[in-house]
Amino acid sequence: MSPTLEQRIAATLRQDVQGMAAYAIQPSAGLVKLDAMENPFRLPEALQRELGERLGRVAINRYPGAGIAELAEHLAHFVALPAGCALMLGNGSDELIDLLSVACDVPGATILAPVPGFVMYEMSAKLRGLGFVAVPLTADFELDAAAMLAAIERHRPALTYLAYPNNPTANLWDDAVIDRIVAAVGAQNGLVVFDEAYQPFASRTWMQRMAAHPHVLVLRTLSKFGLAGVRLGYLCGAAPLIAQVDKVRPPYNVSVLNAEAARFALDHADEYARQAALLRGQRAALQARLAGIAGVRAFPSEANMILVRVPDSKRAFEGMKARGVLVKHIAGLHPLLANCLRLTVGTPEENELMIAALKESL
User: Fold this and answer.
1) Which of 173, 168, 165, 182 is nearest to 115 (CA)?
2) Residue 1 pLDDT more than 80?
3) How far apart are CA 324 and CA 174, in angstroms?
4) Which of 13, 66, 198, 308 has its CB surrounded by the most CB atoms within 10 Å?
5) pLDDT, position 308
6) What is the DSSP string of 221-258?
7) What is the rounded distance in angstroms from the CA atom of residue 112 to the CA atom of residue 156?
8) The pTM is what?
9) Which residues have CB under 8 Å from 221's CB, separation 6+?
10) What whole-number distance in Å separates Cα of residue 72 and Cα of residue 235?
């Protein structure tokens, strides 16, 4: 008698994979979608037509080639990549996180990150067979310097991730503490990765400081720039280090259409800068509105999202969804996030609907 499919799965797939939960994406049809930190603005019609014409001229019958290298050069110029540093492209920053796990998978290697943080650091580590060390933030979502330094000394992590700003807490951490962590990781022969996914909305960056620290990498994405649907990330660091990590990159990992769309966006960076400025202004307006709602605590933000704590997050989330507004209920991700919601900064009209729905759902 042939085994059932369930028996085949049990015998063939890794036990830890069978026990995992998949990355959850909420259904959003018919709702005001403010759950995924997306740029809410579409391109003006003239730029939409121009983009369509450019994509129509791409040779999709050929594998990606020179255009990918040109995009990397364009990005290096755009971010003012420091001398002696190089840049590699990924199919979103998620792929680059995974490639770093592959490249650093030496026997006994671990990855360390503060929590709550981006879930892909831990997921990638575990799927690639590396250990993962989670160091809780303080109650105010700051880095716990003593705990971080102790964990670095004990575990000697190959990779230490510092999301800058952090997701889901949206804050930038104390640079004096970060300096100590960078020095400690360097002394232990490890690498530090600054994940700057939300850089268009942040007041500080490690891009230029990276040059003075050969063990520091900066990871960015064009998703928050305004190209979440394009899926393009980039990793920057000392050229010899990037050359080694690049060896594990799959061939042709960035499509010609994605690359052309990214080049188009960089050619029109002024439009995306205008959108980012609007979102920063909306973030400030939202913070002011949230501060006036009884029972709501809004935490500081340097991203296009705001973390809020409410008396009953489940009730608030469900009430907002029933009123047509979808946000992210993150209370279950970590004990420090009890009764927390993550609100994406949207258009002025979307933000008005979000505030009204939140007030009515408390």
Assistant:
1) 168
2) no
3) 37
4) 198
5) 98
6) ESIIIIITTT--EEEEEEHHHHHHHGGGSPTT-S-HHH
7) 9
8) 0.94
9) 92, 93, 197, 232, 233, 234
10) 10
- In order, the DSSP letters of 7-68 are HHHHHHS-HHHHTPPPPP----TTSEE-SS----PPPPHHHHHHHHHHHHTS-TTS-S-HHH
Contact 342, 307 (CB under 8 A): yes
Q: What is the rounded CA–CA span in Å between residue 207 and residue 217?
A: 8
Chain-wide mean pLDDT for the chain? Answer: 95
pLDDT in tens, 223-251: 988 899 999 999 999 999 999 999 999 99
- Cα–Cα distance, 14 to 227 (Å, whole number): 34
**Quick check: bond before 168 cis, omega within 30?**
yes
Q: Which residues contact 296 (CB under 8 A, 6 or more apart)?
A: 290, 308, 309, 310, 358, 362
pLDDT band at residue 292, thresholds of 50, 70 and 90? very high
The dihedral through the CA atoms of 198, 203, 204, 208 has a sign that is positive
